[in-house]
């Protein structure tokens, strides 16, 4: 029996649906999904199995015009994910069409991917009528020589099986890269941090979520099979700390409860989750924080 395995990079603008597609293809929640843009910071790898093929999905940060060091490191991580992959899938949103951001990605795409196959996945197809979809498909394929085009709804699962089957057939012959039961290669500490950061992002609708980071500082396995997890939420100013804590600590309690419940479901066991909020004005300029997020600090240089 011949097995196939390889890396597939999902690229696109922020909020195009890359994380949702990763989770849909893997069949489990491995990537942070919120309605705010720029939530995926590290290149999260989810592992999907299709027949004899193992598809390692690299869910890159959204590609956008960077303003700060963190932005630049995220964009560099996205292009690096694309340049290292066996296959690249460009996701665009059906209802937004060819935006300035998509044009900018297309300008760089050929140079980054070389001769490797690139598929186009037009997402959120339930939001537009068929004639508009067909026109968009034609326009995109005139702008770039895509190997295949897929019309999908990552959220509802439409078209995802066809994409997964195509990816499985296109990957190089290779032994599997991960054990069969492993769905993500992120350390559990980072998954725990990402889950908490997702809850913070959903709960706090201001600009604040981009000014904070979560670190899982301590992880203790207990004799009864449960685990104690200690996390620190770093914010850049005192006012932000108050927002995260909320009135009489209500906000942090709600966030902690939601993160703990999701962790328990993900890990299949009891979790004791403890959180602290600390002000660290310069965390956006500290190399250590970037390593925690799986980003390269040097990539943030202008």
Structure description:
Residues 4-173 form the Era-type G domain. It is a single chain. 37% of the residues lie in helices and 22% in strands. The chain contains 9 helices and 9 strands. 40% of the residues are buried. The protein has 2 domains: 4-170, 3-Layer(aba) Sandwich (Rossmann fold); 188-300, K homology (KH) domain (GMP Synthetase, Chain A, domain 3, 2-Layer Sandwich). By secondary structure, the protein is an alpha/beta fold.
Main attributes?
single chain, 302 residues, alpha/beta, Rossmann fold, GMP Synthetase, Chain A, domain 3, 2 domains, six-stranded mixed sheet, three-stranded mixed sheet, 9 strands, globular
Task: List the topology elements.
Blueprint: E1 4-12, H1 18-26, E2 44-50, E3 53-59, H2 69-84, E4 87-93, H3 100-113, E5 118-123, H4 130-143, E6 148-151, H5 160-170, H6 188-203, E7 213-221, E8 227-235, H7 238-245, H8 250-267, E9 271-279, H9 287-292
Parallel strand pairs: 1-3, 1-4, 4-5, 5-6, 8-9
Antiparallel strand pairs: 2-3, 7-8
